[in-house]
Amino acid sequence: MMRRGAHNYVCWRCLAFRPADSIFLPTQVRTLSSSSLSLSSLSSSSSPTSSSTSTSSTTWTTTPVARPARLWLLSRTLAPLGRSPLRSASTDSTARSGSSFDWSPVHASLQASRNPNSIRERLKKWEAENPVPALAMPADEPAYGVGNMLTRPQSEFAVRVDLATEDDHDTTHFDGADMVDAGLEAAVLSPGDLVEVNTGTWKVSLLAILLGRFNGHLHFYTHTGKWFTCRNIRSGFVVKGFIQDPAELQAVINAIPSLSASETVLNQLQDLNLGPSRDVGASLIRRMYKFQAESRLIHQTYVERLSRASAQLGSEEKILSLREITDLLLPASLKRNKGAFPPEALYAVHSVIENEDIAFRALNRGARHHEGYPYALYPAAVQANVIRVEEMVRQYCELLSQAKPSSRRLARGTAGAFTEFLQQARKLIDRSREQRAWSPYGMLGPRKKDAAALDPSEIPAFSDTGLALLRFIEHWAACDGFRPGSEYHWIGASILRLVDRYPDALLDASTGWTFLQEIGWLPPWDVSARHALRLPEQKIQRHMAEPEVAGPAELGPDRVAHLRQDFARSTVYCIDSADTLDVDDGISLEAAGAGKYWIHVHVADPASRLAPDSELAKLAAVKSQSSYLAGFQHPMLDHPAIREAFSLGPNQPTLTFSALVDEDGHLLDSKITPGTLRDVVYITPEDVASVVEDTGHLHVPPQVLEVGARPAAGSQPARRMAKPADLSKAHRHDLKTLSKLAAALQRNRVERGALPAYPPKPKATVSLDGVSREVAHNDLVFYNGDPYIRVAYDNPGNPLVSSIMQLAGEVGARWCYERDIPIPYRVQLNTDRESAEALRAFTNDVLLPQLAAGKNPPRKHWDVMMNFVGGFAMTTTPGPNLIMGLDLYTKVTSPLRRYPDLVVHWQIEAALLEEHQRGRSLAIRPPPGGRAEDAPAEAAVATAKEGSLAFLPFSRKALEDAILPRLRIRERHSRLTDNFDGNGQWILQALVRAWRFGDVSPGAPPLPRTFRYTVTSVTPRRTLKGELDWFDRPAVVELEHLNDVVRLADIKAGDVFEVELADVNVRDNRICAKLLRRIEQAKREEEESTGEPSSP
To answer: Which residue ranges are recorded for the region named Disordered (predicted)?
Structure first.
């Protein structure tokens, strides 16, 4: 109930969307059966013959229904809950007796619809005289892609909160040395935090307060009075501790209809809007509205500054944090305590940036920095091109609509160049389809046999107008330059419509992607993830190119040459694949007597000669790590001199991380020493496993899919590889001893809560040996052949190597911790005692038995584990990494491939030089868990503290404020490109080629016709989400693909179906399945328990 002046009224939004218990309906409506609720029934009940009697006996009663149009739905939904949606009342009821309902307006409207001169009849007549195919209206709330923003009103009271996305399905990467969280970070939220929730397709944002996590689900309450739940959330703006008093939350928590662990139950309750009422949540709503009002006031006060946001930030592309942007846009007088802007000011700037679709892109696939995600500022040239193309397309369409079809003439200049572009594009598309079939699956088909080759004369040179249009389509379709709810999608769709070669296709970004492939702008097998996830300053090549001639490597003299130890008496085992070019780590063993051993991890040492401020080092910082995306590999330190100078081998320099351990796997001592190698043995992980007789590997599923012609065998390895038969007795003894020690170290970590093993993941291996350029002209390229793609489960890594590489990281972290040297530690976000104990119990009781049995635990179990962990962070603040069973950890073993490792090496070597110069250790404290006698003497601590850390190349402040924020997002995007989105798109390319084009390699297993599909979640009235038994691929089932097998309301998470493929989109990384039959029915989710603690 709301109040305007002296009158009370009920908001129409409340009538439409709240599960009201006090909406009055006339008896006639109450007594109608759900099947008769239609215009015809209303017409009959309102006929002149019955009108007088029905209206005279009308009474009113209270009914728990939202509106008449939803009576049937509510009756079907609420019946299982034991509630009757319609309460009957006799005509002589005393409740509001004497009230009547006038049906005459309804009757008049129905009579008007029968008038032959009515608009309905005239439209029917016009349609009969002008038959045209009906255009499908986009869905109001699609499971993916762009929805209906044309006829559907957008209101913050009428939105469905967009939470789960396909890219959130599996974003925790196990790389054999540690676990990298490449996904969301909801677990770092606390009850009382304020977050902004986006609605995806609709350009509407809501403010919400986290009520708590209960049985694995986060519960939120929005400023519109809506309650919703999710397992995880992606929020672009957060205010920590917005509600300080837990009592303010408790009343709303008590009104939550269910704290069930069942996602299906919670979805149904939310769909019925059965959450806490606005009366109960009034205090929270007032707090959020006050925050919003203060933010809008700041916006209005400084609207002139904020309206020119992009113009004030420069013309070059860059990554900026919300605080950096606010510093440039708002006056410093708004800052409060500690010189920081208040959350209201930050939110005002955030809201402006979110609506600047041309200039900014939120980097929401990575970690938040402070209040929000970092932003990518598009170059001024890209912004100007969008504005230019928008005006160009609008004017061209208006020009076409003004002239009559028989006498249409185009003006010179831009219109003529636009027409020329369309003609050139059509010719290229027609010619391309003679070689490769277009498909609606987000990719082109394989090259047709005996297709005629293109001649360079057939490839046109695009004008400046044509290039502007192509760059726009690349920005739109390849780079994901616009948000799903952006108004600029119409431009790309209009260009495709004018090209007139996609009559039956949805003119979305996926079709735009295939357009770029058809005209030779991009390779026909290109991976859109490498474009969409590219960050500012990073460069990618559209086509395969010859390597550039490298300039000087800027290598200086060896700064730690006088500190190097000669490891001539040690045999170093470099355990890696035969085709690895950058060998950056090796292992050696040194007996120390009494069952103790020194394990030496020798790591390549580019930090000794490469300065942090050199151009090559700056380029490495931008890349963050080597790219191993299949078909598009690029090293981080891309210079032949680097590989020659630092890839491990005889007489090569190293930075060696040494650990003294006993046979029970206890770490007794450690040290770091620059060194030089002499005796090096290269061997593959598979051969090491055969030597040490390792049978403890995790079971790897045997599934394989191969498409294309297999590459010729017999390629020479990058170096001479030792075979088991080549190894001496001493070599075998070393490897077996190292294996036993590695296993003992890992057992100790597991006892402390470490994950016992990393599950295998599907990986696409790609060869471009069969691909060649057919013709390249005017910056367009067409190709012969297709990539060979092999999809199989990747072995999670040799346990000997992974365990000892973790040991090296632990040694490096402990050494820096003792000296208070700032480095990028890898820490776990949830480290409280309760989370640690729960994680240890869950790992040992749930995950370990499944992994030991050779099973990959289901997605929900990994979700539970990540909820305990809370995610991972790269920070200068030391902290434990419980999922690895370590008190401290950093990465040190790949400085040729990872920039954070290189940063650690620079810091360590600077400290080694300082210790050598001072003649004493810089240690000021013992490592975590160290013995009291390990602590430095007070005099040594005082002496060490006398000197500052000015000798370090990176200060703590520089790391935290400038380097790590950008490094986090760059590392995250690189992981997503290589291991998730990019790898997934290669897998789907293979799937489409096998499914639709029959391109399975000769002798390879065929693609199954049907699959086993396990439901993971049900979105009421929308979709199913689940997982195929084919390489654990996520898939959705739309309503139209239920295939009359079962009603959506009767499906529960855990149900198993036999399905076939309905649609695949490579560009969007999406699989749609079609139900064939139910195989298994899950037990009621209410009976299941996640085992998670609830946190109010």
So the answer is: 39-62
